[in-house]
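MODEL INPUT / OUTPUT PAIR
PAIR INDEX: 1
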Amino acid sequence: MSLSYQHIYHAGNFADIHKHLWLIAVIEHLGNKEKPFFWLDTHAGRGIYDLYSPEAQKTKEGLNGIGKVLKLFEKSDNPLLAKYKTLIDELNSDKTTLQFYPGSAYLAASLLREQDRMTALELHPQEIEHLKLAMHDFEKVTVKYGDMSKLISGFLPPKERRGGVLIDPSFEIKSEYESQARLLMQSVKKWSTGTFMLWYPLLPQRRHERLKEILRDAQLMMTIDEWVFENPSKAIGMYGSGMIIVNSPYTAAEKVKRALSILEKGINKG
C-alpha cells in the first residue's frame, strides 16, 4: 500500500457511489437476521470527508460525483438510494448544501445494530487520527492502526461467523492487483461463509483483468460488477469502478443494478 494515498482527494466520486451502494445492500441484508454479525473495513480512510476542504476542492471529484447525482436520490423512490441519502443527510443536517460525505467506515458503522461489531483498519498515520474522531460515537467499532495484509488473518473467522469484509486498496502500486487477489483467496479459505467485497479501479492499462484472471483460475465463486461511467477509449484516468463479491447476498446485485440504472439515466440526461 502507498502511504502517499489520501482518499480525501477522491471522496464522493462515482467509484465511491458504486462501492457504497454495494456496501449498504450487503449490510442491510446481514441485518435481516437477528443473529449478530462482524464487519471489517480494511482500508477505512478518514470515515468522514469534507468536500469543501482544500484537498477535495483541488480535484472536485466529490462535487462532480455525489454533488451532481444527489438530486436524483431525492426524485427516486428506490429504497437503496433512499437509504444512502438518509445516511448522507445525517452528516449534513445543519447544512444548506452537501459538505460532509460519509466514507465506507462511517456508512458501515451507521448500519450496525446493538448486537453487531466492527473493526476499521487504517495504515496512514494522518488518516487514522481523522478516523478515530469519526468513529468516536460508535461504541461497537474498534479502530486499529496497521497494514491490513499483515492483520486481516487475525480477524478471521470472527466469533459471530456471520458478516463481511470490505477490501478497498488504492491500487497505486502495480503489484497490488496480484497481491490483493491472493490475499482475498487466503481470506476466503479462513472464513468460507463471510461476504467479501474487493473494489478495484477500471483504468486504461486494464491491470484489473489480471486480478480477475487469478481469481477465475482459482475457481473462486464470485459476483463481478463493473460500472463504466466514462468512455474507455477516451479516458486518461479511471473510467469505471469494479466490485468483486464473494458470497454475495442473492438480492444485492439486483438492488445495486436498479439503483445504478436510475443514476445512469440522470447522468446521461445531464
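PAIR INDEX: 2
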Amino acid sequence: MWSAFAGTVGGSAAGLTGLMFIVVAFRYDVVAVSREYRNRAAQALTLFMTVTVSAALIVIPQPTWALGIELLGAAAASAILLLVLDAAARAGSSKRAQPVLVVALTAFEAGIALGGAFCLAGRGDGLGFYAPSALLGLLWGVYGAWIFLTRAGTEATS
C-alpha cells in the first residue's frame, strides 16, 4: 500500500540530494570557510538521505517486523547524526538551538520511529506516521537549500 508513496518521495529525495550538492558548489566560497554552513548543508543532506533510505526500505519485500527494525535503526542513526551536526554548527558561538529546528527535526524522526514501532508490532498501517515525516524531511531540506542560495555569506561567518 505504501510502496508507491515511498517510491515517489524516495525518488524526490534522491533528486534533491543531487541538487543540494549543486547548491553547495554554487556557494562553495561561503561554505568552505563557515563551520556553520558546512554542518547545515550536511543536515539537509541527512534529511534527504534519511527519506531516500527509509523509502527504499519500505519498498523492499520483507516481513513487516523486519521493516520496523530497519526504520527504527534509520531514525536513530539519523537523529544522532542530526544532533551531532547541529552541535557542530553551533560550536564556538553563543547560538542556541533554534526551537523551530528542534521541533521540525524531532517531528521528522518521531514519525519515522513511530512507523517503525508499529511495523515491529506487526501493524503496517503505522506507516501513516512515516508519510508526514517524509514530506517534512523534503520540505525542511528544501528550506535549507533555499537558505544557502539566498542568505549564505550575507552575514559574518564562523
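PAIR 2 NOTE: Helices lie at 3-26, 28-31, 35-59, 64-90, 99-120, 130-150.
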